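In the current project phase, the collection of sequences with tokenised folds has grown. A representative record is quoted in full directly below:
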Amino acid sequence: MNKIVKMVLVLSITGAVSGGILAQVFHFADPLIQENRKKELREAIFVVLSEAKDYTTLEKGNDKEKIVVYKGIDADGKLVGIAFIADGGGFQGNIRIMVGLSTDYLKLKGIKVLEQNETPGLGNRIKEPAFEDQFRGLEIKPKVEYIKYRKPEKPNQIQAITGATISSEAVVKNINNAVERVLKNFPQEEILK
């Protein structure tokens, strides 16, 4: 019985010390992680709105359903487009994408995949420039579509990645959902102010 008490005591102390060390590492690392995320977000805005030199932020909603739009502004102070996050499920986890939209609300200016956990060598190819570049100048109406095994035939279509149809579909679905939400909450006349 004495051995069992010793073992439980040693395991408890080891667990407490390990937990304390992990808490300290998190306390130190979390601000750095958050700062890197902000930097990555800022860089992504300028990728999807390549003419922009600065941006302003608009927010609507509450903490649970907050919608954020970034208005890209060129060197002369002219609006060049808006950017926003498209967030949703993929094949193996969440896919988070920065989306750029033209001021006329008709075409995408580009996308940048920020986070994904898709299958290496297949689904994670959504981060490759060859896939992301398909969205540049893509029409959003009626909705963005993906097609398999052939070249796009309409101005609102992209070609899915062979072997990663679910990931390609998830990107398209997340973009369509985000575009719909942004168009509903941020009318064009409000953005052009």
